[in-house]
Amino acid sequence: MNAIAQTTVMPPIAYRPLPAYLMEAKYEFLRLLRTPSFAVPTLSFPPLFFLLFGLLLNHGNAGAAQYLFATYSVFGVMAPSLFGFGVAVAIEREKGWLALKRVAPMPPGAQRCVAVRVGFTASRKVGNAVVRNRAKRRLRAAAAEVLARQGTPGTDYVLIARSGTGTRPYAQLVGDLEGALRQVARSGRREESRNEG
Question: How far is CA 51 from the centre of its chain?
Answer without folding.
Answer: 43
